[in-house]
Structure formats: C-alpha cells, structure tokens
Automatic annotation (TrEMBL):
One of its GO terms (cellular component) is synaptic vesicle. Belongs to the chloride channel (TC 2.A.49) family. It comes from Serilophus lunatus (silver-breasted broadbill). This is Chloride channel protein. The lineage of its organism: Eukaryota, Metazoa, Chordata, Craniata, Vertebrata. Its main location: membrane.
Amino acid sequence: MVNAGDMNGSGNLMDFLDEPFPDVGTYEDFHTIDWLREKSRDTDRHRKITSKSKESIWEFIKSLLDAWSGWVVMLLIGLLAGTLAGVIDLAVDWMTDLKEGVCLSAFWYSHEQCCWTSNETTFDDRDKCPQWQKWSELLVTQSEGASAYILNYFLYIMWALCFAFLAVSLVRVFAPYACGSGIPEIKTILSGFIIRGYLGKWTLLIKTVTLVLVVSSGLSLGKEGPLVHVACCCGNFFSSLFSKYSKNEGKRREVLSAAAAAGVSVAFGAPIGGVLFSLEEVSYYFPLKTLWRSFFAALVAAFTLRSINPFGNSRLVLFYVEYHTPWYMAELFPFILLGVFGGLWGTLFIRCNIAWCRRRKTTRLGKYPVLEVIVITAITAIIAYPNPYTRRSTSELISELFNDCGALESSQLCDYINDPNMTRPVDDIPDRPAGPGVYSAMWQLALALVFKIVITIFTFGMKIPSGLFIPSMAVGAMAGRMVGIGVEQLAYHHHDWIIFRNWCRPGADCVTPGLYAMVGAAACLGGVTRMTVSLVVIMFELTGGLEYIVPLMAAAVTSKWVADAFGKEGIYEAHIHLNGYPFLDVKDEFTHRTLATDVMRPRRGEAPLSVLTQDSMTVEDVETLIKETDYNGFPVVVSKDSERLIGFAQRRELILAIKNARQRQDGVVSNSIVYFTEDPPELPPNSPHPLKLRRILNLSPFTVTDHTPMETVVDIFRKLGLRQCLVTRSGRLLGIITKKDVLRHMAQMANQDPESIMFN
C-alpha cells in the first residue's frame, strides 16, 4: 500500500492494477466483445509464455501443454458430441416405436431390434414378429378391426402428447434457452455477442433429453439443428476447463466454431460438410487454425458415432443410399424445376413462419407456450396417424423416399408391374409401368406434402428444441419423388419422344426416382437456409455418390437464386432480426452514401458526449457519471476545453477498478483525483491519495474522421468486430458510433424499424 505522504512521489506510487483482480476484461450479459482487444490480450499471453519457456524445463513443458490444449479440447468435443448423438439416435428410435407398440422380450428394444432378435421372423414379414406387439394386441388381444385401430390411434396421440408436454415442461422449468434450433443464437454468439447460460451445462442436459422427447412425439421437426447447439454446449464446457479459452472470449469462439462443425458431422454423418457448414453458415471469424481444428473435431465426432453404430447398418445416418444408374443431360430440366420449387417453398416458409413468430411475440399467444405445444402436437398426431407416410418418423420417411427400388423392396412406392420374363441382375431393374400401390402412394405423398408444408410453419419456433433440416428435406424429398415417378412413367410410356429416344430405350433402367427425391431435398433445404457449397457436400456425403454432384449443384444454385429474388435473408438471419440480436451479416450490402457524421452520437440538439478527463476528475465525479448514464464506456480527453482524445475506458472496468481500489489501496476517498497519465498530476500537499487508472485505458481506440463514408465504417465494424468507433476531426473528439448505431442506421436505410435492435 502507498502512504498518503508518498502520493506525489511517482517512483513509489503503485498502480494496483499491476496485480490482476477478478472480472477485469470480462463482459456483462447481452453485450458485445471487443475482438481487437481479445486478440491483443491473446498475443500478449502467448508472448509471455514463449519468453518464460526459455527459463526452465518446467516452463517449456507448460508452453507445450498450452500449445496442445486446443487439440485436446477438440478431441473431447468430438468424443462427447459423437456419444450424445448416438444416444439420442438410439433413444429416438425406441421412443418413436413405443407410440405404436412394445417389445415383450425386452421393452427397451425398438421394433426393428425386437424382430432382429426373433428366430421366427421371415424375410417377407420382416416387420412382424411375435415378440413385437401393437398396443391393441397387448391390451385387447386384437390386431385387426375398427376397435384395434381406434385404440392404437388413441394411444399414439396420448404418447405424443405425453412426450411433448414433458419436453416443454422441462424446457420452461430448467433451461428456457434449450428451445428452438439454436443456430440463430449461435451465429450471434460467434459474431461476438454474450448470452450467458445459452451454452451452459443445464442447457446441454435439458436440450439432449427434450430433443429425444420432441422428435419421438412425431412433431414436424428434426434433431440436426439442435445437435449443433448441443455440440457448442460441449465446446463451451470443455473450453471453460482451460484458462487459454475460459479467459479469452475471442479464443472461446474459435472453439465454438469447431464445435458447430462437429455438430453437423454427427447430425448428417458428414465431417467435411460440417466444416464447410461452420465456415459458410455460422462462423464470423474463421482463421486457418480453426479450419484444421474443426476438421479434427468433426473427424473424431464422426468416428465416435460410427463406433456406436446407432442404426445398425454401419452408416452414420439412417438415409444412406447408393444408386446404380447414371443421370442424363435431359434430366437437368426437372432438377432445375425442383430447384425452383425449393426456392419458392423457402420463401413461403420464411415469410409465414416469421409472421407467425412475430404474432406469437406480440400477442397473448406467447403467454401460453405449453398450451401451444400441446395443441400443435394434438393436431399433428390426429392428422398424421391415418397416413402411413406421416405416421412414421421423418428420417424413416426420407430414407424410404431416397431409396432405389430393388428386387427385394416391399414398399408401396416400389409396387411396379413386373415383366415375368425379366432375367436382369437385381441392381439393374428396367423401368416398369406403375402398379396400383404406386398410384395410391402418390396420393398419400401429395396429402403428406401439403400437411408437412403447413404444420412445419407453426411448429418451428415453439418453446421446444426444433430443427428445420429434416422437415425441409422431407418436403423436398416428397415433391422430388413424385416428380421422379412422373418422369419415369413418361419415359416408359413415351420412349419414342425425342427427349427420351437417345438415352431411354425400352427395357433400360433410365430414371431413378430416389435421385429426384434427393435433389428435391437439397433444393428445399437450400431455399430455407440459403446454404450452397456446404449443402451439396453434405448431400453427397449422405449418399456416397460423387456422380450426382452436378444435379445437386444445379438444384442448390437455382433454389438460392429463386429465393434470393424474393428476399436475401435465410431462416436463421430472419430469426436473428426478429429477436433483435446485434448481428452484422457479412452477406448484407450497404450501398447508401451517408457519412460517419450522420450516424455518430451526439446528434444536433442532443446533450454533449459524456467524457472523462485525463487528470482533473475525482472518484466521486466518475462514480456520478457512471450512475447517471448507461453507456458501456467513455472516451478520455485531455480536458473538456481541448477535447483532444487520449483513449477509451470501459464502464465495467472503471466500476471494478474503483471498487478494488477502495478495498486494497489506502487513502482512496470520494474526492481523490483519478488520473490516466503515466505520472500523477501536481496536487496540494494535503490532498487525498490520487487513483491511477492508466492500465485499464485503451490507448489505441479505433477512430475515423467525420467525413468517412458509412460504407467504410460498416466494413470496419464487420471485419474487425468492433464494439464502438470514435469520430474525430484533427485529433479532436466529435462523437462515437456503436455497433447498435450502425445496425439502427442500416435498418433505417432499409425502411425497417430501427428500434427492432434491442440488445447492446
């Protein structure tokens, strides 16, 4: 401690901030991090470790451990994300089947597992075995008839309502942040925003449990988007164990970017697609080092999931398919048409879903989330049960739609009229006329398509975990399969037409309807999310066929063009704007000819800017300024007359510094002078002890002149991740522009409500 008598002796005066104190450099909830400052702090930390490593063997070992900590975190994320995804897949499989019946030999077996273990199962009746009993068989010993159907129908609805009610109750009571997809919030967090608890341990636990419940309930949602949130929760948990990441918000976001890649890797069994998804869709800052680590995390996660083998087919996903027929140039036309459909569906979905979510936020509907979930679940279950294509899980539906009709398929979609003289190998069956089963399936698919389109609009955004990838793919796959069957029958009955004559001779296997389903799924997913490169890679990793990249690319690009013609925002960006998160999208273009002086605060007629002076304010003056304003920081100037800029001090650090100084430094009282210079000011002999706060001062705040075009300012905010930028003229402070001011100005220029930006 420094005695009052030594206060003017600058040699003896201690800057107490030389010793670190708790919470300095941290951020408050719903605030944006300072990327430049975090980068600078990490560079200083690294320089310190490097210089210390030359001092002793122990310090050298510590530097190696620090260098390897990133790879260790990636390994742990991959292992936990893969394990959780495997457990979720197994639990969903069992609970989905539980709505229809139970396995008597072991109640924890799903329908498929139950019949695998049976010795009495024949190939033709592989879905029927004595050990698996529907609820009607178990309760009233009837498997057919009206009473059995009604009982099964009733119990199907009851199980669905039970699962949904339990899920929404767990989310409301234990982890409100576990609802939704999670991707809009993760995009916002990766851009530098702080949402405390969003990636916490409770959120991880509740999201994992409720994800199983909601997918099993039969609601029109998927688990793929929420798995990204789950993986990011794993990333946040493991990064908190290493000080390199827990004390630096910028470094933590590098870990979260890699975790997002691991999430998509286990969601689709697509490690490379996961890395590209993180790069293209969710990450804000993605250095080369993060690319390598994302790749490693995605690899470990996929390997872990493959080891668990949740689907029992040695594949990472339920709908892995292989096609044996090449595609032909003439088929590009229906593929592009599917792309147009995907773009139109994406636009329709985004507009309707955002309108419904806005209504939920602004009316009394939002006050009854449990009732909303119960009503939507009841409607879904009541309408879904009679149609075999909506009754089953959406992943199984997509799997059947993607499937190529082989000689051993028993699906209605494969009910073709066979030529009795056919002597072809089983993987090269020629095109055949459709049988009654195919026409019946077409009607059921058409009804299922309309139902899925409508119900998904109301389901996405409810207060339960809800992903959008699988419902979007299901809509596209249904439309694609119907188009594929149509083209196939056209080619069979009119093979002499000029478009079919060159490549579709009688008796040839020309058209693969499953391929059209896959292209349609990619188109609809692209229309909703506006993904392109990562989408194509995910889809070809799903199918294992490099041959079909061109049809997928054609559909993905067409769907993006068509959807972009009606609005540039994908579903995640639309939800970010709806929630008012301060997200500066790199894809948005700013073309207006405004200047920094038009946006900066204070404006004409407003109170002057609140500033600190370098050596003339007392502790009481600073505390009063903090109390009377709610700004996140204050520029420091030489004096209020000259207004020459010295630096910038953060509000949180001022509060912490004064609080700690009062506790740890003798003689600091309300009328002590606060100074930000290297040497203390000259004070009268009996003055109280001054307080030096130079260490918390940012001496190089980012500045622009008042005539800098806003186009440049917006670019600076995007690329450097700034919280605020000071406006000067000839070194004299004129005003300040915050990230919120930039977002408000952009909203105003786009004729939107500038007050929709709610957070700091």
